[in-house]
Write a structure and sequence with these properties.
Shape of chain A: globular
Number of domains of chain A: 2
Radius of gyration of chain A: 23 Å
Oligomer: homodimer
Largest sheet of chain A: 3 strands, mixed
CATH topology of the largest domain in chain A: Neurolysin, domain 3
Strand content of chain A: under 5%
Number of helices of chain A: 22
Helix content of chain A: 55-70%
Order of helices and strands of chain A: HHHHHHHHHHHEEEHHHHHHHHHHH
Largest interface: A-B, 34 and 34 residues
CATH architecture of the largest domain in chain A: Orthogonal Bundle
CATH class of the largest domain in chain A: Mainly Alpha
Chain lengths: ~525, ~525
Amino acid sequence: MTQAPQSPSLHESDGIFTAAVRHARRVAVLASVESLLGWDEQTMMPPAGGPHRADQAAELAMLVHRERTSVEQGDRLRALAAGPIASRGSVEEQATIRLLLDEHEKQSRMPPRLVEELARVGVEAQQAWVRARRESSWAVLEPWLTRTFALKREQAACRSPGLDAYDALLDDYEPGCRWRELTGLFGALRESLVPFARACLASSVRPDDRFLVEGRFPVEAQRRFVAGVARGIGFDFARGRLDTTEHPFCTSLGPDDCRITTRWCERSLPTALFGVLHEAGHGLYEQGLRREWYGLPPGEATSLGIHESQSRLWENLVGRSLPFWRWCLPLAREAFPEALRGIAAERMADALAAVRPSFIRVEADEVTYNLHVMLRFDLERAVVEGDLAVGDLPAAWNERFERDFGMRPPDDARGVLQDIHWSAGLVGYFPTYTLGNVCAAQFMAAARRALPDLDADMAGGRFLPLLEWLRREVHAAGRTLESGPLVERVTGSAVSAESLMESLRERYGPPHGI
Amino acid sequence: MTQAPQSPSLHESDGIFTAAVRHARRVAVLASVESLLGWDEQTMMPPAGGPHRADQAAELAMLVHRERTSVEQGDRLRALAAGPIASRGSVEEQATIRLLLDEHEKQSRMPPRLVEELARVGVEAQQAWVRARRESSWAVLEPWLTRTFALKREQAACRSPGLDAYDALLDDYEPGCRWRELTGLFGALRESLVPFARACLASSVRPDDRFLVEGRFPVEAQRRFVAGVARGIGFDFARGRLDTTEHPFCTSLGPDDCRITTRWCERSLPTALFGVLHEAGHGLYEQGLRREWYGLPPGEATSLGIHESQSRLWENLVGRSLPFWRWCLPLAREAFPEALRGIAAERMADALAAVRPSFIRVEADEVTYNLHVMLRFDLERAVVEGDLAVGDLPAAWNERFERDFGMRPPDDARGVLQDIHWSAGLVGYFPTYTLGNVCAAQFMAAARRALPDLDADMAGGRFLPLLEWLRREVHAAGRTLESGPLVERVTGSAVSAESLMESLRERYGPPHGI
């Protein structure tokens, strides 16, 4: 058998593959230091530390970029793409070559100056955001957002010149996904969701959840309780930790170092509890990735949508279910004997199904939540595509909010300033939240079919069968598949809003007399 | 005026100087990320995170080393050393050129493999140390120490081939200092200290400090109290923070991000209080360095001995003084009303002068402390110079300890395993502790001469005059001077043990009837 001179033999390819993998892993280790900079910034850094942190982030981003665009690595990846492993290797090996090369090419189209500026502005604009939100002052944030959106447009043009600007950004979070598809999916969801949400909001039957959101839940007791719940569903604290922050998140600093965060509200138990169930869901995904592929595409999350499907599955489809509360309620009553006196599991599950309009996305109930997301999706796309000026965002936000929710944000802190994403440079990220809800419902329906004892197991505090099913079916895939094909393989159906609507109707209809 | 062709003109030199400074600052920013890795490892990292942290530290150390040995930077520094700024520039500019070039040459003699191994073994051996100390098992640590000492010998030979191995290591912590000088200084100190310590220990008159070390001081109350004390003496929490750790330390992550740590003991107030005064003393030095020189020698600590002089000055010469307790006691009694009921400032200062033999250096009183240090200095020097095998350290430790303290450590956890330093690769570091005590006493005597109202100010909670004097006289020097010339400039005398012995006799003699 003869080969073109540029195509390496299998034996040569093996050596090149090993070298390429070693390089990619080294870069992943360096990039994981960036995660530590970010985590520390959000949880620990003293107030005056910001400017130097921006310097650190920018320096490290440039170094990581330099490594990612290494000419030798590019040569290796191109040789591999032309060689036998790329077509005849394992699924993992093929994905590794394809995706490392794709990322190498995208990174190589980014000028170092842009990489540095994105990293620096990412830190500085977030600090402006903290102040803007505290003072409810759009003027504080506007210049930063103007700069951020300009940088993101430039990034889109560099990284993926063949795509619409918004698709180029979206593709970084949800590989292969295009805004036109999302518009179709979201449109179908909206058609059923808007009337259902209106019916819930208008109903005279309403679950009474005042004991949950107007109680007294001492923060120290919450801390112990929610850590116990996270441990109970399988989060491994030998490989992770839980801290306090302004805007909860989950981040991995390494294969055995996953950190989740939350905020606390003494009057309201759900704030921290569902925040932690959500972040622990992300954490279970991170802890479930295949460690032998750490730093390579098969050991990375499929997409943010799939990531979010895991957080929402544990937060909502497990955490708000009656079986879950059969297990959890005794723990909760032990932690908060006074606030939860006389509350039964049924009453708790019912209270957790209360639908009420909220200005704040992260406090929204599961029914209205996706309306918050769609608003952001439409606005950020309009800005990126040049149809809306950054300066017009507050007015556009308030107008759309009033249309969807029938009320107007009283100030920008409860409107356009509420989320950290845009100031952190996360543009094209929001739609993955709703995509995650959609996929979560499809996964949970498939899990129910595969695990007939699921409810009984959960009621007994046995979450391992579900977790193991998710690890096997979802987590292990890593980036060997994109989200669409993964959902199809796991559930037998294409991505669709049906399971989500069914699940919402089933769980939120009856408590509202619908 | 003509110049040799290799010597740049002043105008050319200015441009080169600017470029060299920019490069050095960038490297300092990267190196400050290493400090974050270290801080997080000691305070926050989940138990299983260690191996990946070692990978991160090794990767970053190699990158920092690559930058420090950049050929272009070497060319710039050599050109500058031959040019006009090196001889006619400001003191700061001259020090910058001289010390950056010196460091560049030392780094360039280190093979990257050694840099990586030192970083990796530094993390891994520390984790072995934690286990070894917990289990009091020398066997767990021995192989790691054998490897560490071998690496340190190799480092010494590479970095400073013209020096004795031990002097080469010492020089990294105390530039310009040689072990023969230290042997002289320590010998003189030993001559007065050993009989004085014996007299204190043998005295039938003993301060009663049981209320302080066998009391009940709830950790939450301690946390608030010691943070208040640190703030009171001038530690700026907008530019720093305080956390919990196993082995207290202070580290700077940037010019406005200085982190101190402590451990807590509910029975004993001094553990955390003097730990925090000590680390805050380090922190005040870090916060007092000239920020316009951040990342360059004039903005760096003179030496570890000078650093330690600042921590010991605040811990002992301020924190154990009667004037300090006139200010601090009301705060302490508010925090611990029961444990400190009826205790007056005089009684407190007296109790804090109790001398008792201790197996543990960090718990030792001020009088016996330096005997702990000298033991380590002599042993580590013997190992580095090849006169003592690592395997013989425990026996040598116990024998020397018995000779100096009249008692034998009951186990290795309270003997050779107690300190983190050797496992962290900090060999040649211990003697700077005693050097720090010596300098602290000299500085405090000079401060008293310069500030006649010092005692009244401290009693009134006004620590700023002392802090400003230290900033001006000591902190601002940075590395423009070595420690010996700095002490001479500030105090008018060479480094000598006299002030320390005077100060110990004055403060510890009377409470022991001497």
